[in-house]
Amino acid sequence: MDRMPKWVDVALIPLINLFLALVVSGLVVLYIGEDPIRSMWIMVKGAVGSTYGWGYTIYYATNFIFTGLAVAVAFQAKLFNIGGEGQAAIGGLGVALVCLAIPWPHWALALPFAILGGAAFGAAWAAIPAFLQATRGSHIVITTIMFNFIASALMVYLLVNVLKPPGSMAPETARFPEGAFLPNAHDALGVIGLGFSRSTPANITFAVALICCLLVYVILWHTRLGYQIRAFGHSEPAAVYAGIPPVRITMITMLISGGLAGLMGINAVMGEAERLVTDPVQGAGFVGIAVALMGRSHPLGVLLAGLLFGMLYQGGGELEFEIPAISREMILVIQALVILFTGALDNMIRLPLQQLFLRLGKRAT
Amino acid sequence: MDFMTVLQILDSALRLATPLLFACLAGLFSERAGIFDIGLEGKILVSAFMAASVSALMMAYVDAPMPLCVPFTGACVEIAGGVPIAPIVFGVLAGMGASMVLALLHGVASITFRGNQLISGVAINFLASGITVIIGENWFSLGGRTPQLEGSARFQEITLPFAERVGNVPLFGPIYHELLSGHTLLVYIGLLAVFLTWWVLFRTRFGLRLRAVGENPESVDTAGVSVIRLRYTAVLICGLLCGLSGTYLATGLAAGFVKEMSAGRGFIALAALIFAKWRPGYALMACLLFGLLEAIGNRFQNIEIFGIQIPVQFMQALPYILTVVILAGFVGKAIPPRAGGEPYVKER
Amino acid sequence: MTAPAIELTGISKAFGPVQANRNIHIKVMPGTIHGIIGENGAGKSTLMSILYGFYQADSGNISVNGVSTDIREPQHAIGAGIGMVFQHFKLVQNFTVLENIILGAEDGAMLRPSKANARKELRRLADEYELNVDPDALIEDIGVGTQQRVEILKALYRQADILILDEPTGVLTPAEADHLFRILEGLRRQGKTIILITHKLREIMEITDAVSVMRGGEMVATLPTAGTSPERLAELMVGRKVLLRIDKKQAEPGDAVLEVESLSVTDADGVRRLSDVSFSVRSGEILGIAGVAGNGQSELLQVLGGITAATGNVRINGIGISLSGRRADGQSRRARGIAHVPEDRQHLGLIMDFLAWENMVFGYHHDPAYRRGRLLMDNAAIRRDAQTKMREFDVRPPIPGLPAKSFSGGNQQKLVLAREMTRGPDLLLVGQPTRGVDIGAIEFIHQHIVDLRDDGAAILLVSVELDEIMSLSDRIAVMFDGRVMGERLPGETHERELGLLMAGIDAGAA
Fold this sequence. Notes:
The structure holds 3 protein chains of 3 kinds. Chain A is built from 15 helices and no strands. Chain A is mainly α. Chain A has a single domain (46-357), classed as ABC transporter involved in vitamin B12 uptake, BtuC (Orthogonal Bundle). Chain B is mainly alpha-helical. Chain B has one domain (3-62, 81-328): ABC transporter involved in vitamin B12 uptake, BtuC (Orthogonal Bundle), CATH 1.10.3470. Helix content of chain B is 64%, strand content 6%. Chain B has helices spanning 3-32, 40-59, 87-112, 117-140, 163-166, 172-180, 185-203, 205-215, 217-222, 227-253, 265-275, 280-299, 312-328, and strands at residues 66-69, 76-79, 157-158, 183-184, 302-305, 308-311. In chain B, the strands form 3 sheets. A two-stranded antiparallel sheet of chain B has the order 1-2. A two-stranded antiparallel ribbon of chain B has the order 3-4. A two-stranded antiparallel sheet of chain B has the order 5-6. In chain B, helix 2 (40-59) packs across helix 10. In chain B, 53% of the residues are buried. In chain C, 33% of the residues lie in helices and 25% in strands. Chain C has helices spanning 44-51, 74-79, 97-102, 111-129, 144-157, 174-189, 201-207, 230-238, 297-304, 329-335, 345-349, 356-359, 379-392, 409-421, 439-454, 466-472, 495-502, and strands at 6-15, 18-28, 33-38, 59-64, 67-68, 82-85, 162-166, 193-198, 210-215, 218-224, 256-266, 272-282, 285-290, 311-316, 319-320, 338-341, 371-372, 376-377, 427-431, 458-462, 475-480, 483-488. In chain C, helix 8 (230-238) packs across helix 17 (495-502), helix 13 (379-392) packs across helix 14 and helix 14 (409-421) packs parallel to helix 15. Classes of the chains: A mainly alpha, B mainly alpha, C alpha/beta.
């Protein structure tokens, strides 16, 4: 039955799906009368052709790695957490509250507390849907969607009525104290003598994201908790046989997932905006779905897919600048097609390939 | 708050409920047949765009001659003196068509390839967000908008018979004149669609089979009826109704398309569907309630009830909060169709 | 000479490597009740699904009333006058009886006239066949016996002349079963042909005119019921398999390890799966539970393994265990020295996508021996341990890094056994230890079970393979319909007596 080599599953199929997504997007570009090959080139150059491009690519990638990990961890337990958007926003709120709480003397002191704040708030926002799924069987996809909208209403309310500094018109918090500013890529790489563009939002949070990838990997594949999460995700009846408690695993998995989404606030709120605005997430929560699907729910895959989508977002921005006829929304189309091909139409590529390898396997023996 | 204000709010609620209603009924057909659809939002958006775009494009040919050419042959005829059909007719057809194309895509992914219905829905929402802006920019270069629709490129408000004359009759007069009369055709069609949906679902053979396939596809299969055909039909009806929702949004409620104009209505409709426990009559109630919440939110920034200030954001979030409460099963548990979300595979 | 109502010639069907039906020939004469009997997995249900067009045969021919008929979909079967009552009913729970009956056989596009006609027709059928059902009741509100009558009505409403019933009494109480048989006799009087699939000898003897016996995917015999006996059928059903001889000393039982007292389980559908079961197993002893699948053995294992909740008392080494069935009780069971080799290794015993070494600690993942520091799992130690155990149990290939799904059935089973048997359990629960296992591995597995007994463990063996029970057990308990029919000693009984007990007939008591 399952004769496909592992590389086909983890590399070939995602690449074919990406290729298909790019081909269909290319057709859209052709339709609006532009040159897809040139567009592609502009995107690649815009994303990685300069340290400026790299800076934005990494900034976006950092967001997507957090939200991608969030979706991926939940996927491991066969939970579809579509609420990354809301969890990240509320996580951003947590980060902002920490940053505004005291006049931080130094970022190195502020960062650990901001991490705690972001993760705790994000996890809390995932906790209710998780609890309802685990104990009442309420479909977590629907509840997390609803919580995205509730989060966005809550954010607007808090910023307009509670957190807005007196006298200000814009629905945003005051700027964070300088001691809570994170070093950006220019500062950080300057220490080791590397020159980097001064005006990009890439910052030290990228390192936090990398550490999270590693941590998630260790948790999933080197701890009893991860073992239980994965076993539960593969088969709930088998998990019950082995004495793995479904309610507890569902809760813990979703708390980790929400916490990871919440950490995105470090990058977007503390690292870039340095204040809290009403929508600090900007759709990154949803990009996380594409990233997790593309990265096959593995931290390394999420890292690579996160970087890929980071390039896509930065490259897409450059593309709009160079060819105004192709608007930024091209990214959404590519993203949609990646989700469609890797997630929903997976069998379209997988089944024929399985047949092929089955036949090859038969011939070999 | 005087009587007229109440009427105006209710009138506005009815308008705002209409796009929700179409989308909610759309979801009802799909989910009753066992196909989850969180891509209502995308279908609304695409149909709003196509309806507005085609209406806008056809506006040019109302009086001017329109050339019609057969592709690849160069043969052309010209409709002299303009197209005799109102642009909005083409708009409606385009809106429904576009939505049905996305519905078909959802069907291929979730029925033929047995893919994850939720993921497919997510993809369709993004696809709609992106493609409407790109194509819109290409056609009109207005930053993702369509031109303002005027005259016969929009749905016109219909004054019901005698509305002016009975307007002065106490109580009934204003209700008839202000609330019931003066809507566009689609509002009335929406109300009719509720009845029609109920009738199709509970009074026809097709409805019986549709409901059965969402509850227990095996019962349909062993009775010798094609599960696949039923599900595709349901998904296409869903596309058609979503198309009306988007069309109303762009050509009835508004006068043209702006980007992201669906603004979460697909999800509110989904919430309404759960709230309505997948029943047409309740769907009308839920949509009117959610429309009313929106109307109140639009009119008042803050509402005071029993001395407590209710922020407008709470009103906006209320549909979602109510849905979570219903889903949690603390108040009147909502039981979805039993076979929902599961691709049908004949068991070994 | 009338043509047979159904004639199947040379029907074969394979699911992947499994040959479910092999060259089946059968004739069913019109106006008779024809029984098809065989053990679980003998291929009865597959054969009938082919006849109904739910599956397609790889080869062979179907004739209905003497006419060769191409049945590729249920619709064709319905058109040929064949109706089927599946073991698991195909009813829509929140529809009324009437709606279920007309589904797919409506008179026109509108429901109202269809329903009116059906109502009339139902009244006629009810009078004719003793099939009284309230047409407006919801399926979810009526009992299983009534639901089954709805299925029969569905077939009759479609003017079926040939009715197939797959294990119809599996879900019925004795009284309901009697009622069903009265209905079937009525149908026969009206000239209908009935095919009754069952594994219960009593039913065959009671009601059929002819009986066909299936074993291992093949049709072994077709006999007139009047000319046979339960003993003869039991023998044909079980077959004279090569009896595997085990080198086995006389058991030296010690104290009772497992004591079960009046254990009862009622499932979510309200069906009683275990009623008042009591027995005990001593250390150094194998208690074999014989029985046809579906008579409560699975539930017994699940209760003892901590998966299902139950009422009653269970003591391990004299100390009671909780039967509340909290969904993580598997851990507390293991802590009490209970190891569990589940009947369904593919869905319960293993995670098929996990690697072999990951599976080797499944259920024992909290074992301190596999910890590194406070938080981490010592994967290297687990791997080493797995490697040793895989060698010891001769798992082929002995590569811990392969996923479980890439091993053959027998080697998957050895993985589970290696995991459960090497921790010196006080009690081993083992279900269907050799199901889907090749001959060579069977002997190996049996030997290990006996060795564990000799090391002083108490073993509860559940198997539908009678010869396995006979050759391994020190005592045998037979289960039927959720009850223990009786206990026998292997030296003092024979397969025929056990076969009758398994069919619910206590020859000694009669």
